[in-house]
Specification:
The protein is of the alpha/beta class. It has two domains: 134 residues, Response regulator (Rossmann fold, 3-Layer(aba) Sandwich); 63 residues, Winged helix-like DNA-binding domain superfamily/Winged helix DNA-binding domain (Arc Repressor Mutant, subunit A). It contains ten helices and eight strands. Helix 2 packs parallel to helix 3, helix 7 packs across helix 9 and helix 7 packs across helix 10. It starts with a strand and ends with a helix.
């Protein structure tokens, strides 16, 4: 079985490689960016892509959409630091076969790899439980946001300014400011300070 790891941290890629190569008949390829991943995918046609959501100058979801254009049945397992239900639901709706966090055990990661490579859906048990709980609480107001808007909300929640968010995401200050205005409209708040307070409230629920 061929597995392509796409993560911008070489330490993460090397750790995953060592873990995955303990399985029989596994060939592992790795890439640190969309630019590196696409030619490997086209050449090797891996059976499974282990994909991080945060990639330099792009996002894992954008890469996933490009891979599924190459091959509609591409089997993609998201491996991310984000465990919020909204990230999981967005990834699954975009075509991912599975979702697992970087804090998951090695045993659960291997289970996820086997399930997804076999064409079955898999969501980490703890994350799946969070999704069920969030559904019982009612609709999450963040569900109305785009991926870019979610990233901005997350960075606001980390205490970053509009200037620093622009630098992190590689976009202009004006673009971030415009997105903040759209987010405030969607979430029903008028001031940026109220938006930040709401972000903290949602994060702590």
């Amino acid at each position: 079985m061929k597995i392509l790891i796409v993560d911008d941290h070489i330490v993460v890629r090397e750790g995953l490689r060592r873990l995955l190569t303990t399985m029989p008949d596994i060939h592992v390829y790795d890439a640190g960016s969309v630019h590196e991943a696409l030619p490997i995918y086209k050449l090797e046609h891996p059976d499974l892509v282990l994909l991080d959501l945060n990639l330099p100058n792009s996002s894992g979801l954008k890469l996933m959409r490009r891979l599924t254009l190459e091959e509609r049945a591409a089997r993609i397992l998201i491996l991310s630091m984000h465990t919020e239900p909204i990230y999981v639901s967005r990834a699954l709706k975009a075509g991912a076969y599975g979702y697992i966090s970087k804090t998951a055990s090695a045993e659960e990661l291997m289970t996820a790899v086997r399930e997804v490579s076999g064409g079955r859906k898999y969501v980490e048990r703890e994350i799946a439980a969070q999704i069920v709980v969030s559904q019982f609480k009612g609709e999450d107001p963040l569900q109305t946001l785009t991926i870019r808007e979610i990233d901005i909300v997350r960075l606001l929640g980390e205490g970053k300014t509009v200037h620093s968010i622009a630098e992190v995401l590689g976009i202009s200050y004006k673009t971030v400011a415009n997105n903040c205005s759209i987010i405030k409209s969607k979430l029903g708040v008028e001031r940026t300070v109220d938006l930040i307070r709401l972000v903290y409230d949602l994060r702590d629920q």
